Amino acid sequence: MPLSPEQQAEIDALRATPAPTLRAVAPGMERHLYVPQPVLDHGFVRVVDYMGDDAAICQAARVSYGKGTKSVQNDEGLIRYLMRHWHSTPFEMCEVKLHVKLPVFVARQWIRHRTANVNEYSARYSILDREFYIPAPEHINSQSKVNNQGRGELLSPEDSARVLEMLKADSTRAYDNYEAMIAEDGIGLARELARMNLPANVYTQWYWKVDLHNLFHFLRLRADAHAQYEIRVYAEEICKLVADWVPFAYRAFEDYRLGAVTLSAQMVEAMRRMLKGEEVTAENCGMSAREWREFMGVVDKS
Question: Which residues does the entry assign to the active site, renumbered to this chain (predicted)?
Answer without folding.
Answer: 222
